[in-house]
């Protein structure tokens, strides 16, 4: 499959881009080069390769939940700009 100038014009119209004739020709060549590289990758024998979703193996790094004591409310609110009734006081965001 190859990209034509007509294909570039179509995509440019969808993206609402006004391309010059030189840009259309340049993008046509660049996109064809990308497709050529993808075709080259298709030549590789991947029959013995296991499909993966990531290059590196991933595993869950979350720790188990455990109950721990929380900080005292006085210490939590020590650096609060304003507090009221044991809670942070913030400016109203709704009228």
Can you tag this structure with a few keywords?
single chain; about 100 residues; Histone, subunit A; two-stranded antiparallel sheet; 3 helices; 2 strands; Aspartyl/glutamyl-tRNA(Asn/Gln) amidotransferase subunit C; Asp/Glu-ADT_sf_sub_c; EC 6.3.5.-; ATP-binding; protein biosynthesis
Itemize the secondary structure elements and their pairings.
Blueprint: H1 5-14, H2 21-42, H3 73-76, E1 83-84, E2 87-88
Antiparallel strand pairs: 1-2
Helix pairs in contact: 1-2
Describe this structure in words.
This protein is mainly α. It has a domain at 5-42: Orthogonal Bundle (Histone, subunit A), CATH 1.10.20.60. 38% of the residues lie in helices and 4% in strands. A hairpin with a 2-residue loop joins β1 (83-84) and β2 (87-88). The radius of gyration is 29 Å and the shape is elongated.
Summed up:
The chain is mainly alpha-helical and 95 residues long. The protein has helices spanning 5-14, 21-42, 73-76; strands at residues 83-84, 87-88. Strands 1-2 form a two-stranded antiparallel ribbon.
So, CATH architecture of the domain at 5-42?
Orthogonal Bundle
Return Rg in Å: 29 Å
Percent of sequence in beta strands: under 5%
Number of alpha- plus pi-helical segments = 3
């Amino acid at each position: 499959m190859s990209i034509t100038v007509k294909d570039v014009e179509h995509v440019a119209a969808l993206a609402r881009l006004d391309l010059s004739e030189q840009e259309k020709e340049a993008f046509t060549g660049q996109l064809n080069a990308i497709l050529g590289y993808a075709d080259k990758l298709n030549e590789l024998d991947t029959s013995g390769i296991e499909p993966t979703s990531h290059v590196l193996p991933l595993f869950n790094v979350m720790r188990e939940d455990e109950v721990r004591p929380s900080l005292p409310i006085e210490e939590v609110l020590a650096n609060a700009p304003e507090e009221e009734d044991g809670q942070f006081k913030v400016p109203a965001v709704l009228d």
